[in-house]
Amino acid sequence: MTQRCTNCNQLLLDDDTACWQCGQPVMGGGANTGAARATAAPKPSQPTTDVPALLVYSILTVVVILLALAVTIYLGRQPLVQATSQRAPDGWLLVANVNRDFTLIQPENWVMVDADASDQPDDPLNQVLDRNPIYATVLAPLGELTDELYTLYIAASEPLTTTRPGAFLVVVRSRTLNQLTPDDALRRAAALAEANGLTLYNAEYVDNYDKSHVYLNLLIPTEAGLLHCQQQFIPGRGDSLLLSACGSDQNEIGQILDSFQRLTP
Question: 20 to 30 Å CA-CA from 236: which of 4, 78, 81, 228?
């Protein structure tokens, strides 16, 4: 509909609110504009968040993070194993005990007995220890500090019941000895060796990144005569391991001890 200014009679547009000529306010001006604004299409509503799906994703994210953290902690607690020390030379064998407490290399023709092997009837380890006390004797001097010694493994170049095996290795575990610090172990070993007639050639703490241990090199008197032995005392989180390897070939038994790797913290 055509509108005119009531003051100067100029033509007006439908949405004018004042005359463009004289400035006279226009009655009802801009009504169409207001109506247009009133009838403008509403803004589209924001999409609603799917709460259950978001909750599921959040839970899965937390689970993945916790699993990754658990794996990281587990791997961080595992000992570092030197691959080079586990390469068995010709005629030697890589050995791990049944419970995967440790690995070592030894001559493949050696006889061995594992405390936790289920295929060994009649508890052969205790039978060996009962018949041949030499395997307990060579744990001196540190082995004399406690009766709480659990024998894990024995290996020898000859039958285990032989009075004096040519060369052999004994591995025992102890919670009591684990209370010793390296300095305590060295001090007690020296005192006991002197008191009991052992010849201690060398005693030192080896601070190795993969196997820190107390090392002893000594002569031990036994019923079968003097035995030249090398020992390692390896502390752990819950218990310690004591190794004694004896024989005339010190290079051979030294190689066996050097290859020993503890697999449990």
Answer: 228
CB 246 within 8 A of CB 225: no
Which residues are registered as beta bridge partners of 245?
169, 230
Amino acid type, 180: L
Half-sphere exposure of residue 254: CA atoms within 13 angstroms, side-chain side: 9
pLDDT of residue 168 exceeding 70: yes
Write out the two tokens for 24.
């006279």
| Cα gap 201→132, rounded to integer Å | 26
Pick 247 or 116 by higher pLDDT. 247
Give the model's pLDDT for residue 35: 47
Pick the closest to residue 111 from 150, 51, 167 (CA basis).
167
Q: What are phi and psi of 159, to 5 degrees?
A: -50, 140
| DSSP secondary structure letters along 5-17 | -TTT--EE-TT-S
Q: What is the DSSP code (8-state) at residue 194?
A: H
Homologous superfamily in CATH for domain 84-262: Mog1/PsbP, alpha/beta/alpha sandwich (3.40.1000.10)
Higher pLDDT: 105 or 162? It is: 105
Does residue 184 sit in helix, strand or coil? helix
Tokens 């019923």 -> residue: 223
pLDDT in tens, 32-91: 544 444 454 555 555 555 667 788 888 889 899 999 888 877 665 555 554 444 567 889
For the record, the structure tokens of 144 come out as 């004399």
Domain ranges in the chain are 1-44, 84-262
- Residue-level pLDDT at 124: 74
Q: Average of pLDDT values for 85-109?
A: 88
Q: Burial-class residue 60 by CB neighbours within 10 Å (0-12, 13-18, 19+).
A: exposed
Note whether 243 and 265 are within 8 A (CB). Answer: no
As given in the structure block, the two tokens for residue 2 are: 């055509």
